[in-house]
Every structure is written in structure tokens, then in C-alpha cells.
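User: quick one, fold this
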Amino acid sequence: MTSNPPADAGQVAVIGTGLIGTSVALAARRAGVRVRAWDADAVALARADDTGALDPARDLADAVAGADVAVICVPIDRIASVVAQALAADPHVVVTDAGSVKASVVAAVGRAVAAPGDCARFVPGHPMGGSERSGPEHASAHVIDGIVWALAPTEATAGPSLDRVTGFVRSLGAHPITLTPERHDRLVAVVSHLPQVASTALMALAAREETDEPDLLVLAAGGFRDLTRLAASNPVLWGEILSANGPEVVQAIDLYVAGLLELRDAIGADRRADIERSFAGAKAARVGLAAKPQVRAGVAIVVVEIPDEPGALARITAIMSEAGVNIEDLQIVHSAEGGRGQVQLTVAATTADEATTVLTSAGYDPTRSA
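Assistant:
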């Protein structure tokens, strides 16, 4: 892992110690920042304390007192009231949040804050990381490593407040980007909320079909498992998110359905050229999608077959590490027959030849798919 710049925030408050809150605390502690944390759920706070990432506070005000930045990691319907409490607790603290919807949160904060001028110290945020798992026991600083962290300042947000939060985000190893709350909601509806909806709908379809076809899910291989991973997410959390961003998600679903219908018609009419054109366009876009924004302009995928046994993946990553070839993204595709699988390694295009060479030298038979 590359070293992060020094944190601009000497002390940070984390309010809400679930997966994201505790991961932020772990990343901040790694960066040398003192973390004070509080959670309305005393059990969750105790579990987060077990990670060694934070100092538990008596209450919200105790956590925020003396902090340079307070990160609010609570359910969407509680963000506004907690932000208002944090702003009132210390006149010098800059407050940001981790909610996955921004426009409705901004409006709610505006109504909740007692002194309108306090909104100058509020920087709406959204770390684009996480997992289908939840709870502090699944937290890790690596959840924050290399992720895009959206910041959505409003007209009321003061420039120095934005600068402070931007510096803090960078110190955690994340990549801050700035956009309006409305644009944020429109974009995440497509790349974050719609994938959850699609995954859930596909899993629900398979579960219904399994009633009459008990062997259906027995045949489910890596592709199905990859596509339905998000279906294991927290139903209550996603109910809140989709409700808060309803209009944008509905529009995203409509666009997705239109694309599915277009592909369905091409398949039904056996228009091979249209089918292949659709697949080729999607493949080209997927190849250009890397985990890190700084390499998104030029990546390649190297595919390696490996046995399905302990240590197989570790050997691949060790070979790449020893050669100095960074893995930007990684996907495992399991074989339906079992016993073997494929590792698809996304690397910078400039290192693809080197990756292929070192893997071949180690006895593998890699292929470059893009």
C-alpha cells in the first residue's frame, strides 16, 4: 500500500460504528489520527472498540468535542438530526456524512440545523465503498483504500470546510471527487443503486423458479454467484436508500429495462450482428473500468487458470507482487465442474506484457483477453 499524505485533521469523531464508520476509524487510526467514536447502540460501540481503532465516547457531544472533522455514519433517516447535533456540539468542527443519497439529506439538514450559518461547516459526503456484510466486525481500513469518496458541497458550504474534509479523505487513502448533490444522486442511481436492484431481482427470480425446479440453483456457477452477491445485503438499509432516492432509481430502472428489451428483441429475432455489437460495447466498457481512477484510461485483463485449492490465489498475487506489477482489480470465476477456476487480473495496460511474462515463467499459461 502506498503511503498516504499526513492528515489535515488531528482528531476525528465518528458517529455510528457499523461497517463504514468503523472502517473509517481504522483508516484514520492508521493515518495517525486520534479517533473518538460514539454509537447509540452500546453493543455496536463495544464491538467497534474491540478493533482497537477508536476511543469510545460517553455520548455524541463527548465524541465531537475538540474534533477537527466529524463523520456521521448513521441510517439515512437519522443523518440530519445527528449532523445538527454535531454542528451544535462544537463551533469549530467540520461535519460530513456517509449517506448514499445526498439531495434529500441536504434538504433535511437545512431544516434541522438551528443556526443556518452552521451549514457552512457541513460537507455532504459519500464514501463509495462497502460490502454486502454489515457490522463493525467486518470493518477494515482496506474498505476505504483506493475508493472514490464523493463530496457534494452546497452553496452554503464554506471553502475551508470543503478543503478540510478533502484533506482528511485523502489522508485515509481514498480519492475525493466533488459534484452537486443532485448529480450525485443521479449517477449513483445507475452505478450503485441499480446494481443492488438488479441483483435482488435476479436472485428473487431464481428462488421462485427453484420451487418447481429444485436443481436450478445446483447449477448456479460463478457468473450467477457474482451477479447475485449484492442480494445478501441488509434489506432495511436498502429499503431506506431506495426510498430516499426513489425518482432517480426509477429512472435508472426504466433505462435498464429498455436496454434489456432491446437485447431481448435482438435475441428473439436472431439478429446475431446486433447481439454481438451489444456484447462488444459492454465488454469494451467493462475492460475500461478499473478499481482506481488514475488507471481507468488504460487497463488490460490477464486471465489465468488455477486449481481450486488453498493458497492458489495467494501464489498468483505473490508472483505479481515480486515482479512489481500492481493488480488494479481482480475477479475469480469458478468452474461449474469444480476443481478449477479462472482469475481475471486487471492491470495497467503498460504492465500487461510483463504480467504475462512473469506468470508464464512461473509455469502458468496466461492469456490476455483485452
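User: anything notable?
Assistant: Confidence is low (pLDDT under 50) at residues 1-7.
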